[in-house]
Design goal:
The chain folds into 2 domains: about 130 residues, no CATH class; about 80 residues. It contains 11 helices and 9 strands. By secondary structure, it is mainly alpha-helical.
Length: about 270
């Protein structure tokens, strides 16, 4: 357990010899952004519903911190969760939104985040301490696995509304919007992913399977493009494809999206 000067406590676990925090702030709840907050990021109602659903059921709490399984211990932070340059971008967004809150949680431990200044991306610096030399970028991120105080501070940051909104802003800008933009010029795919349910299938494919999963889902749409349920039909085919290739967990999640009443309706 890590206790901060303000009395806040963060209980850490252990996974593979690395400290983690599984999280305490759900995507839906009194300590989290509202759907209206999602829409203020430029999402339509259908997109906001879809993203909220996917994060609630298949994402993580806003204050979760785990590690990339195949990295040197870089953290994965928040509801999506974010890692690498996208995590750095989220921290820079938060620093820009709420510099005092950022400094109170992370700045006092020697972390600095700078927003992107094109062509330069957002950056993260660790100013150094008695036990660690100064570092930048991914080297600075890897320190979270080595210092429980830093990891606990990042978890505590995820409880701040401004940091939660920064997570969502980085997610929408750098992950979801490029996916959506790549299909808006494709009339078949664009119409297939108009409903909240179909959009949830698209976002879930990116979360669980990455760009290859998204491409597979879109390929199924193009094979059977009949509106208005082309996206849902593609989801059924994706679920079967996942089942036959041994990914029963992901297949089950796709069926949950296809059958949930939370995603019913034209929006």
């Amino acid at each position: 357990m890590v206790t901060f000067p303000d009395g806040a406590r963060v209980v850490l676990g252990n996974e593979g010899g690395r400290p983690i925090h599984r999280g305490t702030v759900a995507v839906r709840g009194p300590c989290s952004p509202t759907r209206e907050d999602f829409m203020k990021l430029g999402l339509t109602e259908a997109q906001a519903r879809a993203l909220e659903f996917v994060l609630t059921w298949f994402g993580s709490p806003f204050d979760s911190v785990t590690s990339e399984p195949q990295s040197s211990g870089e953290p994965r932070w928040g509801a999506w969760p974010l890692s690498g340059p996208t995590l750095i971008t989220a921290l820079a967004h938060w620093k820009q939104r709420e510099p005092e809150a950022f400094d109170a949680r992370l700045g006092r431990l020697g972390l600095e985040a700078t927003p992107a200044q094109p062509p330069e991306p957002a950056s993260l610096r660790f100013l150094g301490s008695r036990n660690a030399a100064p570092s930048e970028g991914r080297d600075a991120l890897s320190l979270f696995a080595e210092d429980p105080r830093l990891l606990a501070a990042l978890a505590q940051a995820g409880r701040e509304r401004g940091a939660q909104l920064a997570q969502l802003e980085a997610l929408v800008t750098h992950v979801l919007r490029p996916i959506l933009a790549s299909y808006t010029e494709d009339a078949v795919a664009d119409s297939a992913f108009a409903s909240a349910r179909a959009l949830a299938l698209l976002f879930h494919a990116e979360l669980r399977l990455g760009r290859r999963g998204v491409a597979r889902l879109v390929a199924f749409v193009r094979e059977r493009p009949e509106p208005p349920f082309a996206g849902e039909h593609a989801g059924e085919r994706l679920a079967e494809d996942l089942r036959t290739t041994g990914r029963s967990r992901e297949a089950s999640e796709v069926w949950r999206i296809l059958t949930s009443p939370e995603l019913a309706g034209p929006a």
